[in-house]
Design goal:
283 residues, seven-stranded mixed beta sheet
């Protein structure tokens, strides 16, 4: 049995024909954990060969729309595909605050759709979410566990968005740390200490620093590729995966620029500048 990490979406709020919204799928045996659910997550999970009924839980990092806009689709499609047999409520784990409020209300707008489907199909069950909230943690804290797999949540720095967390997944094969959206900061170092695989949101600051001041505002709460490389080197991470890529490296030579930033900063481990559905095997 091995642990796999599938990048289900490498995009950002800017629409892309090839990059779904942010998401990471971690699988170990029968455990399938989805971290964030941006646009087109259902399509990417299908592309990864996962039936939605086999999802063990979805974890939310923060309440930005590009990380949540696919979650309604996950919940509704999971229910629709179950047909008359029904399906257990979808476990969704999120920090207390706006993300919890969103998840709690997100299916309300679909009540008429659900009613007419039930009438047509002769069923009476409803799409449901098993909402599991946790307080913003002072240090990485266990928020979910099943068998040999456990998930811890820890602080990241994505102000003015609060709360924002990253996650640490521990399996018998090793440790995966997922930053969500953040600055490169000490909090990420605590969350990722000893990790075998670090999945990091990545922005190349250098080209964005040439934009107009109103567009440079996003530099204040994302992770600079050069600082990512230095931090990953200091942590001794074996494999670094860059996702949520800004600007998207879709033209010839742009992927190499992301890699060069990280390498120039001193990181010499395995490096993946991810495309949707890239897979890393742990163990």
């Amino acid at each position: 049995m091995t642990t796999t990490i599938t990048i289900t979406g490498t995009g950002c709020p800017i629409p892309s024909a090839t990059r779904a919204g942010p998401g990471v799928l971690v699988r170990h045996g029968d455990v399938a954990l989805q971290f964030d659910a941006g646009r087109s997550t259902v399509m990417r999970l299908t592309g990864a060969g996962l039936a939605l009924s086999d999802l063990s839980a979805v974890f939310v990092t923060h309440h930005h729309s590009d990380h949540l806009s696919g979650l309604q689709d996950v919940a509704l499609t999971r229910w629709i595909m179950a047909r008359r047999a029904g399906v257990a409520p979808l476990p969704v784990v999120a920090p207390a605050g706006p993300a919890i409020e969103f998840v709690d209300q997100m299916l309300d707008a679909w009540q008429h759709d659900v009613a007419v489907r039930n009438l047509h199909m002769g069923r009476s069950d409803l799409p449901e979410v098993d909402l599991q909230s946790f307080d913003y943690p002072d240090e990485p804290t266990e928020v979910w566990a099943a068998g040999a797999v456990r998930v811890l949540a820890g602080q990241v720095r994505h102000e003015p968005v609060h709360p924002a967390v990253g996650y640490r997944v521990e399996t018998p094969d090793g440790v995966v740390a997922i930053t969500g959206d953040t600055l490169v900061c000490d909090e990420v170092a605590v969350l990722a200490r000893g990790a075998d695989v670090l999945v990091y949101e990545a922005m190349r600051f250098e080209p964005l620093q040439r934009l107009s001041p109103d567009r440079q505002i996003i530099l204040g709460y994302h992770a600079d590729t050069r600082l990512i490389g230095a931090q990953a080197a200091e942590l001794g991470v074996s494999t670094l995966v860059l996702t949520h890529l800004i600007p998207a490296p879709d033209e010839p030579g742009e992927r190499e620029l992301f890699a060069a930033d990280v390498r120039d900063a001193g990181f010499d481990g395995a490096l993946v500048v991810a495309d949707d559905l890239d897979v890393v095997v742990l163990g």
